[in-house]
């Protein structure tokens, strides 16, 4: 298993496309489906793109806490299986 897969289990690998270009990651199929549900196209993304689509997914599905919007409640959503958590804070992403 690559060190990227160990650090980021939602990704198959990460590699630089060319010197000076942003690192591209290839999400594993469950995570890719979540990103695609938020409008992502393709199979490889920069980490900035991943965070954008993940944020879109959370907003569209209204998974955030209405009072404390940095808290995401994902119990009962496919995101729960991916994260392994019922809720998490976007200010402390692990």
Automatic annotation (TrEMBL):
Residues 1-26 are annotated as: Disordered. The keyword Metal-binding applies. The keyword Transmembrane helix does not apply. The lineage of its organism: Eukaryota, Metazoa, Chordata, Craniata, Vertebrata. This is DM2 domain-containing protein. GO terms for cellular component: nucleus. It comes from Crocodylus porosus (Saltwater crocodile). PANTHER family: OS05G0521000 PROTEIN (PTHR46858), PROTEIN MDM4 (PTHR46858:SF12). GO terms for molecular function: p53 binding; ubiquitin protein ligase activity; zinc ion binding. GO terms for biological process: negative regulation of apoptotic process; protein ubiquitination; regulation of cell cycle; regulation of gene expression. PROSITE patterns: SWIB_MDM2 (PS51925). Keywords: Metal-binding, Zinc, Zinc-finger. Residues 23-94 form the DM2 domain. Pfam families: SWIB (PF02201). Transmembrane segments: none annotated.
